[in-house]
Amino acid sequence: MITQRAAFPQIIAYPDAWTLPIADVINIGMDAIVLHLRDAMRVVSSGLNVLFSSVQTLLIGAPWLVSISFFTLIAWQGGGRRLAVTTAALSLYILASGYWVPAMNTLSLVLVALPLAVMIGFGIGYTGFRSKRACQFILPMLDLMQTIPAFAYLIPILLLFGFGPVVGLIASVVFAVPPMVRNTMLGFEQIPPAISESALMSGCSRFQQFRWAEFPSALPQMLIGVNQTTMATLSMVIIAAIIGGFEDIGWEVLSAMRKAQFGQSLLSGAVIVVMAILLDRVTAAYAARQLPNASHVGLPFGRFILVMISAIILPLLAAQAIPVLNNWPAGLVHSPAQAINDATDRFVQAYGGIMVTVKNTMQYFLLLPVKLGFERAIVPFTWGITFTTGMKTAYWIVICLGSVLAFGKGMWKSGVAILVSAGFLFFGATGLPWVTVFLLTTLLAYQVGGPRLALLPAGAIGFLLITGLWEISMISVYLCTVAVFLCILLGGLIGIWAATSDTVSRIIRPINDILQTLPQFVLLIPALMLFQVGDFTALLAIIAYAIVPMIRYTEQGLRAVPSTLVDAGKACGCSAWQLFWDVRLPISLPQILIGINQTILYVLGMLVIAALVGTTGLGQAIYVALSQADAGAGIVAGFGMALIAMTADRILQGVINLRN
């Protein structure tokens, strides 16, 4: 089929005449929905806006001493003295950085969106627990909601609710509901049957059984859901700044990035990091407080309320008496933004040549071959040579010999893998015939999961083809492939190192925590500072975001290998390499495969955010659709991205199941 490319060009590029105007149909439907629901949605929007404005006025209008006292007390109640000191110190940092008002605006959105997401998530999760029929509908919807890029959420919400902070609020609620649903279902499913039976035998009514037995048992898991929902809410609130004009901290980062003010974007990004760390630690502390071995339980609820009232009134009186405790003095605001800008300029001037060399090397010898293939990437301008017909013939002879050798030794999977990998590198992601991709992907899915799983990639690729998204999808696949490969390579090595050294593990763990806590936006800043816009910058940001699962699952998998198996290997005289390759790696492989699965999903999630630094592909299509309020194009591209993620997820799950 590949050899007939010149005679049949339609097997390479899917003909435009075969596409269907699905985006236009969605736009027509969306127009009808907007026409009928706009007024009702605007009423809802106005109500939420009143709620948001009230919280915003309270947070911004309150003296800073009152706010910090309140935050510190909340932290102490959940996690004790150490968390309280951390909260006070980091709150003072936000104040002294000059971003207090944008931070409070962002916090206002989170505080309004979070209870809504938690309540909706709990309702859906409990319904899914009680009804298997509802569960069969809820779980696929959660998969879809968690794989559709965040930008795609914004477009229909934008059309229904108009511009303004409420759009970000509603999008945050929609985006943050799935973790709460999953943890609610998991919490109730994990309740030991003995607890429910004891409540029943004690004569409890159905409500009493829920109130006194089931709910408290499921609460620790649900609080973990609240923690994850909080972080998802903050992440979406930051992303929603892209349609903003609203003075929140996400808008501060975005506007500074657009003006190439790296110092300002870095400092405002640091405030996002601080907020993310505080929200994560405080909500995680309240979840940990429910465990039987918790070291800090805080005050009883009634006494805590009294202390909280005191913590508000006393600072309020002090702020009225001493003006400096009411408004933070402008002279105490410290912003080294200009100094950072100057230092960045000096660094780029001094080491710009090295960075350009690194960027071009990666571009010419890794990114372009994967994107265009050797046949188009190897040219005198980039490689210094011409990929002649003789070299191409030699390339395929070597590949065929390697494949035949593998088949000869009975390793047919390796033989097939050699041919497929060599074909991918020769033709590139954008040069592969769509028919070949369709057949190979469907066959792989059939091999690992049977005919039912094969329907998913067949349907996904069919959708991308008939919607005209095939070419830009393969651009996304190319960047995703490179990012996943590097994450597996680098993350795997770091995970192996951390598994063999407690010191390395202690160093890596907080770095992983920070990378997973950071909103995706922030990861673009350092890469953009040093390498400007382009695929390489996007690649660095994607790797920074997606490498964490690979590190964690590799370390956990290797550390979980039973010591008896390792001792048995040593008793048999295995070397250190044999112990790793023949004992530890096979045992830990299922967990490492889960890490690869999570890495792929993280990469696809970050691809859309990376569109802000100039990548092309589906992410850019969604970003353009958002800027043009084109619901059809945005939903189709977002759904296409979700189908790619679900296909990769299901095929890898099939591989994991085969391994088990």
Features:
660 residues; 26 helices; mainly alpha
What does this structure look like?
This protein is mainly alpha-helical. It has helices at residues 22-61, 64-79, 81-97, 100-130, 132-147, 150-161, 165-189, 193-201, 206-239, 249-258, 262-288, 301-321, 337-372, 374-377, 380-383, 389-408, 412-427, 434-466, 470-500, 502-517, 520-531, 535-559, 563-571, 576-610, 618-627, 631-659. Helix 21 crosses helix 22 (535-559). The longest helix is centred in the N-terminal third of the chain and has 40 residues, at 22-61. The chain is globular and about 85 Å long. The two termini are 36 Å apart. The mean pLDDT is 86.
Major β-sheet annotation: none
Q: Which secondary-structure class do the elements indicate?
A: mainly alpha
Strand content: under 5%
Number of helices: 26
Element pattern in H and E: HHHHHHHHHHHHHHHHHHHHHHHHHH
Terminal CA distance reads 36 Å
Tell me the overall shape: globular
Q: What integer is the average pLDDT?
A: 86
Task: Outline the fold blueprint.
Blueprint: H1 22-61, H2 64-79, H3 81-97, H4 100-130, H5 132-147, H6 150-161, H7 165-189, H8 193-201, H9 206-239, H10 249-258, H11 262-288, H12 301-321, H13 337-372, H14 374-377, H15 380-383, H16 389-408, H17 412-427, H18 434-466, H19 470-500, H20 502-517, H21 520-531, H22 535-559, H23 563-571, H24 576-610, H25 618-627, H26 631-659
Helix pairs in contact: 1-4, 1-6, 1-7, 1-26, 2-3, 2-11, 2-12, 3-11, 4-5, 4-7, 4-9, 4-10, 5-7, 5-26, 6-7, 6-25, 6-26, 7-9, 8-9, 9-11, 10-11, 11-13, 11-21, 13-17, 13-19, 16-17, 18-26, 19-20, 19-22, 19-24, 20-22, 21-22, 22-24, 23-24, 24-25, 24-26, 25-26
